[in-house]
Design goal:
Shape of chain A: globular
Strand order of the largest sheet of chain A: 5-4-6-7-1-8-13-12-11
Main location (chains A, B): mitochondrion
Largest sheet of chain A: 9 strands, mixed
Number of helices of chain A: 17
Number of strands of chain A: 16
Mean pLDDT of chain A: 91
Radius of gyration of chain A: 23 Å
Structural class of chain A: alpha/beta
Distance between the termini of chain A: 24 Å
Oligomer: homodimer
Organism (chains A, B): Microcebus murinus (Gray mouse lemur)
Strand content of chain A: 15-25%
GO molecular function, one term (chains A, B): hydroxymethylglutaryl-CoA synthase activity
Family (chains A, B): Belongs to the thiolase-like superfamily. HMG-CoA synthase family.
Function (chains A, B): Catalyzes the condensation of acetyl-CoA with acetoacetyl-CoA to form HMG-CoA.
């Protein structure tokens, strides 16, 4: 492989000599790219500049090949029809058998992304994993992923695992972007991987599970650029959802508290985000308040889909309460009865919630609904939930629809850590453009979801029981037929006497 | 507090207006500093420049107030005298009772650092925790630390927990430095926290335990600046040390494999580091090979102290094998018998190891020995081990000795993730300089270690048994007298029925 890369090394040297900020990586992606590498991992002789438009060049979503239908679950659990499908907004839920664990999920999604982009394995200089599906308190999923890079000889890849509930994917994304803007960036791509297996005991919470993973390739000149210098974060110490019982796969959840924490974090992040962007505008000589109108699209971490509709509604409440009374009268007629409320007094106000959801329905349909496509059909995937929403948004809109827009993104992890940030979508939506290629790469999402196998609640429950039985076993090969997995899926082949895990891949 | 900050807000505004890169934070530290804050968390209107000399402004080490003597342990375990004290190079080992856990350790070290630097709590814009002492699979230690910031109203603090064995502290340090060089830096300090409770079953490995935490304050113009654009990393998928048994506090260890992995990672990182720095030199028009002579000091992750002496010796082997035969004859006379060896064939060569340790003894005494002071007396603290070595180095040298030097640092986490990087120490060692203040802040290390209580092996074993019994308990208050803790130590007050942990602080 070294010899193949020689022309590129020359290109890099030339680039260094001319002190251009960096290769236009996005243009190399995905199908028509040339080989790109800094195999020698020599830092580019960059001057102290940030590369332009660091963000997402490509992304890949993985979900299990089997699901349970939520109407079936409603019947099986003897609950009223619509409790899950309407109340939670969930129609189907993906789940994994013992054959899959967090390592195999991440192996699969990384391999798929690398194969689709056709990038050489030594073109990645950073890879970080966000997950809360901990199967080893010390050994990072990242180290298992190094197996994929072995043949390339690329072992100089920064980044390990990062954890706080559903926030780990966002922390990884931020860390990767920071690296790319720092002096330590060596000109190579960063990869952000997030995934989880969300399972609950056989009670009310079980229908809010799910499983999946997302891998994202980051570089400069990205069609989905992170807005430079702009992030709002809110963190607190709370016990709303946590996993203190290390011997069990299941979390402890205070559902009511968690919803309040989520909404409070949303309020705080939105206020801070508006404040920061308004300050940016001021410094640019623009005096204009920021409102939801400035987000053409808005995506959210999705514990269940109706939560997201209420969250967008909540942002409208924020805009309403902070606007002048003239604006309140003209723009928010349906909300006039709620004037003068304080945000912190409204978390359990059902009348307000109802009015907000109604008032924001149009906005929801335009800005957010499309992003829930995957979550509706696959469930909550914790750290990768928000990025599954991003993929859904891309899959349900054309590049033309998206071009030039701002996508707001709210990430929430219990405990709690939350951030609101945004992507600027590139203007160029022409055929073959990076944006168009990224968008079209997500177009198979519906077909892939349709091709999953529908399992009965009985089969689902049986598999959940098996997960419990095998959770701490050693010296076994997981039961099940590998042909039930999608082609190209990595799976757990064996756990030996010493808890060491061995993986294999179903042929593509 | 808001009113107190007003003059600083004005200073910040002025600074923004004049577009100076950033406040010279280091000058504000520690005793004579003025209050500094960006309470409004508005990003500075920086242009696309990296701040100068991002690195460590201040650091704080915490270790438990009790230890067991290794000669006592040798007798108690009926092993030959010197097995632990000479064979491992360990004289004492700190340990925690059930009153302390990873959260309390980190609470203590962060509070101590903030109190000593007298910084306002809203001057921190990023805080990340590296640990492998996982007591919750979802909720990050970072979220518990947010409790300390609550009164200040500062909830906009990026960063969560990061995990891969002993490497988490280094990953956090890198992430914090990247943030500070990125467009997302808002002018505030970053804090890196790492800590662990290293415990083993009652077998051969038990004397290699330890417990402690380190907190580091990061900013520009630091007396210990990270060398810009220079890091060498090596990662692989191996099972040398891991914690797959989630129901136990103890790891699985393949000691022999782990030593080989450590040394292989060291070889690879050193080769890559030399390659990268030589490339930097070439671009600056300097054609000079990098050798150990270019590190005035060298610190290592320290699983046990004799491992570090062998590791420095190993770096000499690297220099020896890559030098010309003339140099080999002149500089490395004692090693001539080992010419022509390949690095990868030498991991178990005892004759070579002995010759190397002898040949590098002088170098060890000059560059590394002082850094082992804390590790010798407190044991392995996993993620914070390397940074305890850094504190030891500072505590055993004068600012004058250190000024202008380069400190090499090798971080290793099983699984595996390893990096070699370096600090440049500032030239200014004058009284009151940031360097002098940082160095003098570590001078009480010997006195603090001396003030610990020596416990008998029987008492130590009893407390280890208690840790096992309480590991998964709920609804209890830890046994023990809080007066056995150092003043100002946070401790676990209660774990309630729902596994929620409550902490209190022993008065200062």
């Amino acid at each position: 492989m070294q010899r193949l890369l020689t022309p590129l090394k020359q290109a890099l040297r030339l680039q260094r000599a001319t002190q251009e900020p960096c290769l236009t990586l996005a243009r190399l992606l995905p199908a028509a790219h040339q080989r790109f590498s800094t195999a020698s991992a020599v830092p580019l002789a960059k001057t102290d500049t940030w590369p332009k438009d660091v963000g997402i060049l490509a992304l890949e979503v993985y979900f299990p090949a089997q699901y349970v239908d939520q109407t079936d679950l409603e019947k099986y659990n003897n609950v009223e029809a619509g409790k899950y499908t309407v109340g939670l907004g969930q129609t189907e839920m993906g789940f994994c058998s013992v054959q899959e664990d967090i390592n195999s999920l991440c192996l699969t999604v990384v391999q798929r992304l690398m194969e689709r982009t056709k990038l050489p394995w030594d073109s990645v200089g950073r890879l970080e994993v966000g997950t809360e599906t901990i199967i080893d308190k010390s050994k990072a999923v990242k180290t298992v992923l190094m197996e994929l890079f072995q043949d390339s000889g690329n072992t100089d890849i920064e980044g390990i695992d990062t954890t706080n509930a559903c926030y780990g994917g966002t922390a990884s994304l931020f860390n990767a972007a920071n690296w790319m803007e720092s002096s330590y960036w060596d000109g190579r791509y960063a990869m952000v991987v997030c995934g989880d297996i969300a399972v609950y005991p056989n009670d009310n919470a079980r229908p809010t599970g799910g499983a999946g993973a997302v891998a994202m390739l980051l570089g400069p000149n990205a069609p989905l650029a992170l807005e430079q210098g702009l992030r709002a974060t809110h963190m607190e110490n709370v016990y709303d959802f946590y996993k203190p019982n290390l011997a069990s796969e299941y979390p402890m959840v205070d559902g009511k508290l968690s919803i309040q924490c989520y909404l409070r974090a949303l309020d705080r992040c939105y206020a801070s985000y508006c404040h920061k962007i308004q300050n940016q505008r001021k410094r640019a000589g623009i005096n204009q308040a920021f409102t939801l109108d400035d987000f053409q699209f808005m995506i959210f971490h999705t514990p269940f889909c109706t939560m997201v509709q209420k969250s967008l509604a909540r942002l409208m409440l924020n805009d309403f309460l902070s606007s002048s009374s003239n604006t309140q009268s003209s723009l928010y007629k349906e909300l006039e009865a709620f004037r003068g409320l304080k945000l912190e007094d409204t978390y359990t106000n059902k009348a307000l919630e109802k009015a907000l959801v109604k008032a924001s329905l149009d906005m929801f349909n335009k800005k957010t609904k499309a992003s829930l496509y995957l979550a509706t059909r696959n469930g909550n995937t914790y750290t990768s939930s928000l990025y599954g929403c991003l993929a859904s948004l891309l899959s349900r809109h054309s590049a033309q629809d998206l071009a030039g827009s701002r996508i707001g993104a709210f990430s929430y992890g219990s405990g709690l850590a939350a951030s609101l940030f945004s992507f600027r979508v590139s203007q160029d939506a022409s055929p073959g453009s990076p944006l168009e290629q990224l968008v079209s790469s997500t177009s198979d999402l519906p077909k892939r979801l349709d091709s999953r196998k529908r399992m009965s609640p009985e089969e689902f429950t049986e598999i959940m029981n098996e997960r419990e039985q095998f959770y701490h076993k050693v010296n076994f090969s997981p039961p099940g037929d590998i042909n039930s997995l999608f082609p190209g899926t990595w799976y757990l082949e064996q756990v030996d006497q010493l808890h060491r895990r061995k993986y294999a891949r179903r042929p593509v």
